[in-house]
Specification:
It is built from 7 helices and 9 strands; from the N terminus they run H-E-E-H-E-H-H-E-H-E-H-E-H-E-E-E. By secondary structure, the chain is an alpha/beta fold. It has a single domain, classed as DHBP synthase, CATH 3.90.870.10. A hairpin with a 4-residue loop joins strand 1 and strand 2. The longest helix has 12 residues.
């Protein structure tokens, strides 16, 4: 089982901040929030307009697909084809934690989430603030690093402002985790590591 984040990253975000962020997400907002290593951008994964706006801010092509983060597997399970027991053992051994898995997506999963793929990238996060945000919202969220394409992910609110000015609807306060690299990405079908964490 992946070790929990150190105490510094377990500092709770104030409940009213979480409620505010969750309501904005339900209303179609794009927000920024601290993750395991950098600030992330997130939105309601089923709100096409919000996802398109996020992709425009990121300058990220639709075909690339996006990652969903969740507080627990139940929040992403309905996006996925049934996961075989043999896969579950290896996946759940890494969660909650900084490993993103590519898993076969249900056919109805929107193209703006899976891109040109038949799989979906999902992670059950160990970052207390991200997990609390998913719980407050009531489901999985799009999560992508907060940076325009080709730039380093933002690690401070000042970098966020420089990148996006007033284009982000809300910045959720809270500490970053202690990781220095983005999550590792693994393909459940092949076992290949597609991005080292």
């Amino acid at each position: 089982m992946t070790k929990p984040e150190p105490a510094a990253s377990r500092i709770p975000t104030q409940p009213w901040h979480l409620r505010r962020a969750a309501q904005l997400l339900r209303d179609g907002a794009v927000i920024a929030y601290p993750t395991e290593a950098v600030y992330g951008l997130g939105c309601d994964p089923l709100n096409a307009q919000a996802v398109m706006r996020l992709l425009e801010l990121k300058q990220r092509p639709l075909e690339a697909g996006l990652i969903l983060i969740a507080a627990d597997f139940n929040q992403v399970e309905h996006f996925l084809e049934p996961v075989p027991a043999s896969w579950r053992r290896k996946i759940f051994a890494t969660w909650p934690g900084p490993v993103t898995w590519l898993l076969p997506a249900r056919p109805e999963v929107p193209v703006w989430l899976r891109g040109r793929h038949d799989s979906l990238a999902v992670r059950v996060t160990a970052h207390a603030g991200c997990a609390a945000l998913c719980r407050a919202y009531g489901g999985a969220l799009v999560s992508t690093s907060a940076n325009p394409r080709g730039r380093k992910p933002a690690q401070t609110p000042l970098q966020l402002r420089r990148y996006f000015d007033d284009s982000i609807d809300y910045l959720l306060p809270g500490p970053l985790g202690t990781r220095t690299r983005p999550s590792e990405i693994r393909d459940a079908r092949t076992g290949k590591v597609l991005r080292n964490g």
